[in-house]
Amino acid sequence: MSAASRLEHAPREAPKGFIRCYVFGTDHKVIGLQYFFLALAAVTIGIILSLLMRFHLVWPMAHLPFVAGGIMTPEQYLALVTMHGTIMVFFVLTTAPQSAFGNYFLPIQIGAPDMAFPRLNMLSFWLTLTAFLLMLAAFVVPGGAPISGWTAYPPLSGLGEIAGPGEGIGQSIWVISILVFCFGSLLGSINFISTTIDMRAPGMTLMRMPLTVWAWFVTAILSLLAFAVLLAGGILLVLDRSAGTSFFLPAGLVVNGEPLAHGGGSPLLWQHLFWFFGHPEVYIAILPGMGVVSHILANFSRKPVFGYRAMALALCAIGFMGFLVWGHHMFVSGMNPYSGLAFSVLTMSIGVPSAIKTFNWLGTLWGGKIQFRSPMLFAIGFVSFFVTGGLSGIFLAQPAVDTMLHATYYVVGHFHIVMGVAAIFGIFAATYYWFPKMFGRKMDETLGKLHFWLTFVGVYCIFMPMHFVGVAGGIRRYADSTGANYLAALQPLHRFMTFAAFITAAAQLIFFYNFFRSLRKGERASANPWNATTLEWITSSPPPPDNFGGHYPSVYREPYEYSVPGAHQDFLPQNLAPEDLPRANEEPRNA
Amino acid sequence: MPDNVVMESVDLGGGRPSGSGGALGNGGRGDNYSGAASVPQRTYVTGMMIALGGILMFFMALVSAWIVRKGFPNSDWQPLGIPRVLWLNTLILAASSLALTRSRRCLLAGRDDEFRHWWGVTTILGVFFVAGQLLAWRQLVARGVLLATNSSSSFFYVFTAAHGLHLLGGIAALLVVAFRPPRRLTLDTATEVVAMYWHFMGGLWLCLFVLLLVGK
């Protein structure tokens, strides 16, 4: 790599001491790992909550030792729904793909020594951690966790203690935690965007950026615009709860026989503000996964990404259109049918850039020398879930169909597959793929494949039946569906889903075992174990504190030059200068 | 940066890294980027522009909520009598922006004393503005118009408080640059970034004020 790198200054040393290095570190790699482990803790809690819900749906009268009174009340079930959704959406799906992997790899992939504003980066993480701890505190305050769902619709979320046990302190803590989280995300997105614009290495033009960088960049723009709106809405909700204002609370409310003094507000106003954030939030969760999947499919097909430019533009198009479709969450809210029609058409037209991405992924695989390694399996799994979950979304985009399916398990199945599991598969793919770079060791392939197949089949077993339950009229958020006859008939399906959920959750123990064992005992990884082209693979595993040990790369090539005709080796690193090419041809593996 | 090398072939030779540093079109960090030790100065300007984009979105969310809330049929909306002192406050804030422009111009011309003088004038006018906003609140409270009195007053307090808090941040930044210039930024960049923020807050207030006057 001699001519491709330039020695610009002495390598930067890592700060001394555990506190300065790992607790108050400003190195983007350390912060990325902090986010990663935060998400790992959050996903563990989120899965446990979901298992409790699945258990309760099948055995509603079971005595649970940790529940006050022994039998779970409907309010406690709703608290589980709320906290599961909130923790998963904010602290896993927003945190892991963007903040964790984006922080770790965006600067390296564009050839920069760090983020543009390292201390701001540290502040972002500390705000996110504070938000997480606050959110967990909602479990233990008097009254327990809130019951208004992750969407926190008023009037329920605005009324205070009178509306239910978790609606007092629990809901207040929930809102404050979300506000802190918004603030952390906003600071983080400023950093991501500035870094991508101004910190790219010489030669790293926009059209030479890896698709992962494109995805993180577009996602950061979405975060900046969406979380600002949630911040505004959240502040108004806090005022409604604690200062007696009436932004969202309508006149004439009588709760538990007690008339309330609020007047004139509109719950619909919250829904507009929330979903203006909430729909882009879906793309905040999934876009980084799309970038990672493109990256991995090219690597393990030994082919360039099919239609790179179209892929980058489709990311931008999905991001832009994501801001125009929030109304499809509100078809049954009494919205004007004409605006419903507009939202419906716009929603379906997102299918166009989504299809571009899907077909280009298939085009990338087509005719490739495919290597079925664990990251590749999870990337292909992502494509599968994205298609399955995306197709059910087209049904839900019809106002007439949605009127029937709204608030049923059909919706639960849809968004868990397309937003939840697809994004999680993106995270898994990224973890298996970049583990050697982050920790200098490889994860076990056999365990990785076992983990993939159990999870892949298990997830379909959990969420496909939900579509049938939904079409049959199974309502979401009901704590107990054994009472009504037509719902009781769906119990066998519920039992099947619960068993599938427990088996799939158990399969995640394989991942945890593999992950933590490989940290210490995994096979040592070279700098470029996957024979990949992008800049993170030209530096050591794990990278030195300043990423490139003082040798900053210049970029000469497209990001995915695999199997280039005429070249001796089947990959050309981005920093391979034209004058170095003959030498690279003589030494086939210059890793 | 390597130069004068002929590319091998169309297929294999990558393009040259371009040295000149356009923010978006060219290859990222250009001539003024010197490696790990420092971040290019223009990054701080970029960062501030992006932050202002987020702040604009925040206020647009509040304003659109205000428009929706006001436009309800059979609304209980009661027009709010805007305190007169807001006119004076608006003039003060506009004057502070002028002083800041003057101050930046003196800095660029190398007239250091004048720069500090006008920088101080900007800060003091900023403090006057915030004091004036508090005075407006006191006048409203004296009239019995509180946060929860009516939605028009709720929005008035939210707008002014949100803008005022942002302005306090601006005053803090003015003071920091005056007394303890940050290490990573040159004085030129630091003043430019603060000026962007300050002018933006001035323009934002003007928009909010006009909205409150027209929409009541």
Describe what you observe in this structure.
The complex is a heterodimer of chains A (591) and B (216). With 591 residues, chain A is mainly alpha-helical. Chain A has helices spanning 18-23, 28-58, 74-93, 95-109, 118-137, 169-198, 211-242, 267-301, 308-321, 337-349, 351-365, 374-396, 399-405, 409-439, 445-471, 485-488, 491-521, 581-586; strands at 5-7, 254-255, 258-259, 551-553. Chain A has three domains: 28-249, Up-down Bundle (Cytochrome C Oxidase, Chain A); 279-519, Cytochrome c oxidase-like, subunit I domain (Cytochrome C Oxidase, Chain A, Up-down Bundle); 526-591, no CATH class. Chain A has 18 helices and four strands. In chain A, helix 4 (95-109) packs parallel to helix 6 (169-198). The N and C termini of chain A lie close together (10 Å). Residues 1-7 of chain A have low confidence and may be disordered. With 216 residues, chain B is an all-alpha fold. Chain B has one domain (43-70, 83-215): Four Helix Bundle (Hemerythrin (Met), subunit A) (Up-down Bundle). Helix content of chain B is 66%, strand content 0%.
Q: Catalogue the unreliable spans of chain B.
A: 1-37
Total separate domains of chain B: 1
Q: Number of helical segments of chain B?
A: 5
DSSP summary, beta strand count of chain B: 0
Shape of chain A: globular
Number-wise, the strands of chain A total 4
The helix-strand sequence of chain B is HHHHH
Largest sheet of chain A: 2 strands, antiparallel
Structural class of chain A: mainly alpha
CATH topology title of the largest domain in chain A: Cytochrome C Oxidase, Chain A
